[in-house]
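ASSEMBLY PREDICTION REQUEST
Request ID: AP-0331
Submitted by: J.K., bench scientist
Number of chains: two
Total residues: 739
Priority: normal
Notes: Please return the full assembly, not individual chains.
Input sequences:
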Amino acid sequence: MSVLTLTNARLIDPEAGTETLGTLTIRDGIIASVAAGIVAGEGVVDCRGRCLAPGIVDIGVKVGEPGERHKESFRSAGRAAAAGGVTTIVTRADTNPSIDTPEVLEFVTRRAQQDSPVRIAPMAALTKGRQGREMVEIGFLLDAGAVAFSDGDTVTTDTKVLSRAFTYARGLDALVMAHPQEPGLSAGAAVTSGMFASLRGLPAVSPMAERMGLDRDLALVEMTGVKYHADQITTRRALPALARAKESGFDVTAGTSIHHLTLNQLDVGNYRTFFKVKPPLRSETDRLAVVEAVASGLIDIICSMHTPQDEESKRLPFEEAASGAVGLETLLPAAMRLYHAELLSLPQLFRAMSRNPARRLGLPGGRLAAGAPADLVLFDPDAPFVLDRATLQSKSRNTPFDGARMEGKVLATWVGGRLVHGSVG
Amino acid sequence: MTFRAHHLLGIEPLHPLEIATLLDLADDYVGLNRQQEKHSDVLAGLTQINMFFENSTRTQASFELAGKRLGADVMNMSMQASSIKKGETLIDTALTLNAMHPDLLVVRHPHSGAVDLLSQKVNCAVLNAGDGRHEHPTQALLDALTIRRAKGRLHRLTIAICGDIAHSRVARSNILLLGKMESRIRLIGPPTLIPAGAADWGVEIYDDMKEGLRDCDVVMMLRLQKERMDGGFIPSEREYYHRFGLDAEKLGYAREDAIVMHPGPMNRGVEIDGTIADDINRSVIQEQVEMGVAVRMAAMDLLARNLAEARANV
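STATUS: Completed
Returned structure:
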């Protein structure tokens, strides 16, 4: 029986919404007790007032297995996650081939168990080959351990196919996750339309395309009653539709990426391709509206939308360059920007990064309470550093935060009570 | 010297004084070009490579002539035919060329920002001959020189830019340049061809030619690409000509001494009436072509001086 007691820790409890200086005891990989107050004794680790929070559950991480292992493997992604305080990676199905059969899903699960120091919860595609024509074997994939069904950022254009997939998923109580975007309007777009995009002469999409995509999806939710999660809501005008759906009692949640919460379209500057993400970065007005929606709880989940891309696919003219940014290791320090700007509190942030995603997927983590798995992150929210992308654990280093001044360092990460990154004491 | 730039990637990074310096020097080259003996050797010994990733006859010819008149060794590379087809990336192409020690690299590319990207990978002066829908700085400079010679100034003029603004790098560079020189700019075109957010550029926007042309000093027409005429952006060629084609009646709303410009090649009967294009009292279209050579000579001359200085300081 192994016991670890962490004391003098600033305990961030997203469930209760509190921060308390106290003591947490881990026994056999499970949180045994959480209490206010500092204790002393042999084998007790002094956290010196640093923050202890439930580990991050990151929904929508791209690992390049199968197919693009040179961009990210389960080993590198797992290490990156551990270094970033992420204790569960929820992987995307937009691999090559897509994760659309139980056999591929089993391969992924096995590879993850072999190589990853953090937990992996795989998603499966919603349609075969993510082609938007035929639904996958949702039942078999659920049995094989799929936590949600999503074609990633590929939008199913055939609404009949999507409505049937939603209806079938509803019968099995499966969660579907979609990328709300009107595919016709957003075809070929590299940035958000507006003065900046026009000045740079880049193909652009109106922010309204997101609302149109969300409106369609929500109508289908109303029609079918499926459990639905919008992967990234990034625009002000999509928010009222989301609020209406929630008020009407539909089983709807929404996420947003840390990049859309901390960066805006002007960061693209002189065609910097590391800032090309999907959907594209938005205006400052949109960014602030989305931050506010996270604060109010309208947007439930913050994710990193970790998308590794090799150097070659980014060293191209902006229009041709691949979309996406890595984020596992920068999610927490970037989130601290919102904390230091006094836009979101630490319990609010960990509600969106740990508790809500765990609950949405029915995972046991995301809580700082007795009986929960000891998936924990110890961090110093104030420690300053300049990010050097060469130091990242990811195989791909396409981060928009290279050279950025950040505050917030992960000191230690535990998964099931096992220390997977850093050290204490 | 007040020209400090090391590349000519766009109008955006230029200071008004740099623009004025360049135009002054171009004025001198207009004189040289009109002589029987048109040769100078300020670029003697230097190598100029023209890399065109997109078709061009006029701009490429203009750059080639400009380089040759100044004594540079000029090489033309038609890139659509060669390496991209073999899968080479832009940066590799740039590095390959860089190894040949060029001094001046003139680049046209179909993607916005591509010339900027290329300039970061070479150690010579790069001139943007048009990148995607972003900028076409030498076109704006030659337009400015034409206007300055016709009107005597570049400030406090009312200049209308008409047509397909959304897809035009010429329009963007002109808006930036004429704005820096403190002229008043009007954009005229159907809303489908006006870029999103253009209202925030400090320009006035019109969708009626007569209203927009009222009391203008300069009327700048843009080419409407054939592929935009088929119902995607405008319903038809004839409706476009009816509403936005420049004819005598519409031009009548501009000032009596207003000049008419067009970057070429023209679609007569689509965006401009043939008789107006040929009217020597109004049209300065041929003069624009002449100014193009002079402006490109001036640009390469100034960049070569800065390049020599930079290399001497290494």
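REVIEWER COMMENTS: Strands of chain B lie at 47-52, 73-78, 104-109, 125-131, 158-162, 184-188, 204-206, 218-221, 259-261.
SIGN-OFF: pending second reviewer
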